[in-house]
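Hi V.,

Quick status before I head out on leave. The structure for the redesign project is tokenized and pasted below; the design run finished overnight.
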């Protein structure tokens, strides 16, 4: 991430020596050095709420200057959703290229890779409904792949629980922080939530698989497609990790 701000920085000791190992009077030795370090996770936590409050998701390709612009727009009472949508519209090719680059690193399950590939092609073309309709059936299957990596089988609820449990235990930094926070929230709260009516769908803040597949709501627009594509990539990355870990430590 591009760093161009002094916010979300802190002074860190480069030698990590505890103070009680310093001088007898509690001060540090003359050779102790410090540096100002930028903390992208702290920025991600602060920025994410500004995105989710207006129904959007942060992306790793967004420079820190833009994240701060979103935060400052919110604080000034401006139209945050419009600022985000304008940036995404103008940088759609950059977003697609980033997802395409990540896809080249995934080494499992040809169908998952093909689904993501076709979704990225549709995203580039502005065929947002095709993005959503291509990826929605894949989320449950991703969960079954995690079960398989653990030597298990199960029903739909077992597949959903498997993927939610797995991503809940991923370490910080596994995935770009500003993107993972929004994707994680969507995957653990809205995507698989119970949804039987249009009112249920309206009450959810993020895309819901059941609502899209049964015609209760549609997320086939720029915002919905961006969120679904990000969440799918996050899951593919997680499943790829689960399968790799199972191969290393069966």
């Amino acid at each position: 991430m591009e760093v161009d701000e002094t916010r979300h920085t802190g002074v860190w000791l480069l030698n990590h020596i505890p103070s009680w190992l310093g001088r007898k009077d509690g001060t540090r030795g003359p050779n102790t050095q410090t540096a100002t370090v930028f903390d992208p996770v702290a920025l991600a936590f602060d920025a994410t709420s500004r995105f989710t409050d207006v129904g959007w998701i942060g992306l790793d390709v967004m420079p820190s200057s833009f994240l701060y612009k979103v935060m400052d727009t919110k604080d000034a009472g401006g139209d945050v959703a419009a600022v985000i949508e304008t940036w995404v519209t103008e940088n759609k090719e950059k977003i697609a290229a980033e997802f395409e680059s990540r896809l080249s690193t995934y080494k499992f399950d040809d169908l998952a890779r093909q689904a993501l590939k076709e979704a990225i092609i549709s995203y580039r073309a502005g065929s947002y409904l095709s993005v959503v309709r291509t990826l929605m059936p894949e989320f449950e299957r991703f969960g079954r792949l995690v079960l398989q990596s653990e030597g298990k089988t199960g029903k739909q609820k077992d597949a959903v629980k498997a993927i939610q449990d797995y991503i809940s235990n991923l370490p910080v930094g596994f995935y770009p922080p500003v993107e993972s926070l929004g994707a994680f929230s969507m995957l653990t709260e809205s995507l698989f939530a119970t949804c039987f009516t249009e009112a249920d769908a309206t009450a959810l803040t993020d895309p819901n698989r059941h609502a899209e597949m049964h015609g209760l709501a549609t997320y086939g627009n720029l915002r919905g497609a961006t969120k679904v594509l990000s969440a799918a990539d996050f899951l593919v990355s997680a499943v790829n990790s689960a399968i790799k870990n199972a191969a290393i430590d069966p």
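Above is the designed sequence. The first helix runs from residue 40 to 52.

G. will cover questions while I'm gone.

Best,
W.
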